[in-house]
Amino acid sequence: MSYVLTLSIISVIPVDPGSVIQDVRLADGVSNSSGRIEVLHNGEWGTVCEDGWNLTDSDVVCRQLGYPTAEVTYRHAFFGEGSGFIWSNELQCNGNESYLSECKQDEFRELVCNHRQDVGVFCGSKRISVCWEDITLTLANFRNNPYCSANYLNIFTFFTHYMLRYLGG
């Protein structure tokens, strides 16, 4: 009779709770699925700077909050300026994460942004696409206008979404 002795070594790597995003919420939106993105870090809520933030990051925020996707990422404090600290941790989400804390991130730090750069999101079941690389939105007789820039696109998309909902579309 022979016996096999198996030894397992379990190593526990402590994670600094101050190095990860602990929670996320949306503030000052027109519904529960929209608003300024705020994160809980090291026990303190703060807003997120728009620098380096993209739609993939917003997708993860929406998924964490129970929505399948982000329809629009809003910049320039679209939902109003927040207060307190402004955070950025240079997230590198690949889009498959369920929580922001699963995204690769550099050291969490306070940035030199101001609250006019707070980022927001509109979460929903599908994405609204208004601008594409090879198509430019033009209005009236204007050409090469910045109507696909962040401000115009955000307002246009937000308005279009609610008008379609109002009309039953």
Automatic annotation (TrEMBL):
Residues 24-124 form the SRCR domain. It holds the Pfam family SRCR. PROSITE patterns: SRCR_1, SRCR_2. Keywords: Disulfide bond, Glycoprotein, Receptor, Repeat, Signal. SMART domains: SR. Disulfide bonds join C49-C113, C62-C123, C93-C103. GO terms for cellular component: membrane. This is Soluble scavenger receptor cysteine-rich domain-containing protein SSC5D. It comes from Holothuria leucospilota. The lineage of its organism: Eukaryota, Metazoa, Echinodermata, Eleutherozoa, Echinozoa.
